[in-house]
Amino acid sequence: MKNRSLSFWLFLTPVILGLGIVVVIPFIYGLFYSFTDWNGITANNFLGFENYIRLFQEDEFMNSIWFTIKFAVVTVLLLNVFGLGLALLVTRNMKSNNLMRTIFFMPNLIGGLILGFIWQFIFISVFGDVAGLTGIEGLSGWLSTTGTGFWGLVILTAWQMAGYIMIIYIAYLENVPKELIEASKIDGASALQRFKNVIFPLVAPAFTVSMFLTLSMSFKIYDQNLSLTAGGPFNSTQMVAMEIVRTAFSDREMAYAQAKAVIFFLIVAVIALTQVYYNKKREVDV
Amino acid sequence: MKKNNEKRNTRLLEVFGLLLALLWLSPFYLMVVNAFKTKRGIFEGVLGIPEEFTFENFVKAFIELEFLKSLFNSVLITGLSILIIILFSSMAGYALARNKSKLSGAMFFVFVAAMLIPFQSVMIPLVAIFGQVDMLNAAGLIFMYLGFGCSLSIFLYHGAMTGISHSLDEAAIIDGANRFQTFWYIIFPLLKPISVTVAILNTIWIWNDYLLPSLVLSEANATIPLKMFYFFGQYTKQWHLALAGLTIAIIPVIIGYFFAQKQIIDGVSEGAVK
């Protein structure tokens, strides 16, 4: 198909319009409006970097960034440990392999909003009941403090997404040649040695993939945040995505919210580009 | 001796795995079991089976959620979005893969690079623009899903095209077919496996999406997640009703998963690893 041919452009018109109107134009508009006093309809004044200076001085926004970073670090670690653990478990020669995969993956298919509501019940009512029955003080009053809200979000996310990371590790584990495993067994390697010296180096690419995938997923979380803690108590468990939505649609400070959205884009883009860089570097090494 | 040990270890591991799977399912157990209790029943204890089963919660939640209407809205919006994403992304993937020019490569790069932009970074201007042309409705929402869904889909179709030989196109053109006929009758059927993957990956996020519909749709056209949010807000702390509503909302997903487990897991695996 040639550039000049009509059919080439006809084949591309729908997606060019789709991506252009929905993503590219709003993105450019947003970038421009973040330097003004835009209220969603008109912009009267050009403010330069005023919105950006203001957001770096706002405690609530900076708190939400720190909260999100802490959440992302803990969640990425847990998700990869669980994901790899589950994958190693269900790739062994067992009858109930498929059943286990099906169950571990299931929470992924249900929306974060609904899962957050279910866990709200568990953290408040079920934990409360268990605290009453066993006398474990630490189980009562969950989600009412910043700390328990944080761990609540971590537990919910780890439970929901571990099955997804498991699927990624399975794909790599099943590519490890059976002969290599057999050979290491014949040579008398223990299970631990086998994992460290044979399996691990072969699934190393899976680590890069899932590390960055989980990192960008945990940065963009919104639904779970809204339904589990709604940011409370006192907006202390509010993550960046939610902070932006609130600034825009509750406070109705559109230009200011858009400046936060631009910063959010920069953070997410840096994460993704670092991944691309590492992937390229690895390809060269191999 | 060593063989026996290994067998026993595997057996032990399997028991551990099954117990872990039960723990994984426990939130769903707690949801369902308490949805059958009365308000008093929940007050008396949340762990056990209800002493007296009640279906009233489900009846009330079903009515309050306007479940059939919300289900219809969800099916309609997700279904139409998937259809146009599959049709238009496969066409684009085909055109970009069969044109080796710099322009084509640059356009492919733009589509892939757009995946870097998180939703929240374009959401505010997007809603403002669509609001000004009066398109904050179901049709506008479906168009937005095309915009957000096409990047990954084009990427997957583009990758799949490398496995389809040029000679097929050429044979069809020599036989007198035009580009559209070639695509529709020769290429598109061969892309079916990747179309299944594209359909599954997009269905998962569009079906469950809350934020975008909450900004675009009125309450009358609410999808299941949106309606669930309103419903939950209305019945905070009335867990017997809230849990019955959540159970109902999950049922369509569980049914879908039951029938298409293998395709779903394979599709997700394919989408994630590429």
TrEMBL record, chain A:
Residues 65-275 form the ABC transmembrane type-1 domain. InterPro entries: ABC_transporter_permease, MetI-like, MetI-like_sf. Its main location: membrane. It comes from the Bacteria. It is a multi-pass membrane protein. The chain crosses the membrane at residues 7-29, 65-91, 103-128, 148-172, 198-219, 261-278. It is found in: Cell membrane. The keyword Iron does not apply. GO terms for biological process: transmembrane transport. GO terms for cellular component: plasma membrane. Pfam families: BPD_transp_1 (PF00528). Keywords: Cell membrane, Membrane, Transmembrane, Transmembrane helix, Transport. Belongs to the binding-protein-dependent transport system permease family. This is Raffinose/stachyose/melibiose transport system permease protein. The lineage of its organism: Bacteria, Bacillati, Bacillota, Bacilli, Bacillales.
From TrEMBL, chain B:
It holds the Pfam family BPD_transp_1. CDD domains: TM_PBP2. It comes from the Bacteria. Keywords: Cell membrane, Membrane, Transmembrane, Transmembrane helix, Transport. One of its GO terms (cellular component) is plasma membrane. It is a multi-pass membrane protein. GO terms for biological process: transmembrane transport. InterPro entries: MetI-like, MetI-like_sf. Residues 71-260 form the ABC transmembrane type-1 domain. It is found in: Cell membrane. The chain crosses the membrane at residues 12-32, 75-96, 108-130, 136-157, 183-207, 239-260. SUPFAM superfamilies: MetI-like. Belongs to the binding-protein-dependent transport system permease family. This is Raffinose/stachyose/melibiose transport system permease protein. The lineage of its organism: Bacteria, Bacillati, Bacillota, Bacilli, Bacillales.
